[in-house]
Amino acid sequence: MESRIDIPKVEPAAYQAMYGLEKYLSTSKIDPILLELIKMRASQINGCAFCLNMHSTDARKIGETEQRLYLLNAWKETTLFSEKEKAVLALTEEVTLISHHVADATYQKVASFFNEQEVAQIIMAIVTINAWNRLAITAKVMVG
């Protein structure tokens, strides 16, 4: 499989604007491990190999366990994730699969754990990783 287009090279201003969102998120109040779980779960749903590779590596570097990474796809079926994490993972799934819309109950569950600013940051993290997934998949960015 060959890459289709090098967007950072062809449209550097657009790429830098997207990267600006990523830089903003790195300064947010979102716990770094939770941020990587958001990125991993959305990337699993979207089937983005490049992002899965990157974010599993990043998650391990900051202390995420192999077991939780392996079970992330089945987070509802395990006790390894906190209720707070499960609320965010549910929101991640519903935002990623947006055609099904985001349930009020899902949103309220997240809002019960986080203040309004943190909820906004979590939503921006989910939206941003979905955009990165779509760019990487469409451009056929290769792993390795």
TrEMBL record:
It comes from the Bacteria. Residues 12-94 form the Carboxymuconolactone decarboxylase-like domain. GO terms for molecular function: peroxiredoxin activity. InterPro entries: AhpD-like (IPR029032), AhpD_core (IPR004675), CMD-like (IPR003779). Pfam families: CMD. NCBIfam families: ahpD_dom. This is Carboxymuconolactone decarboxylase family protein.
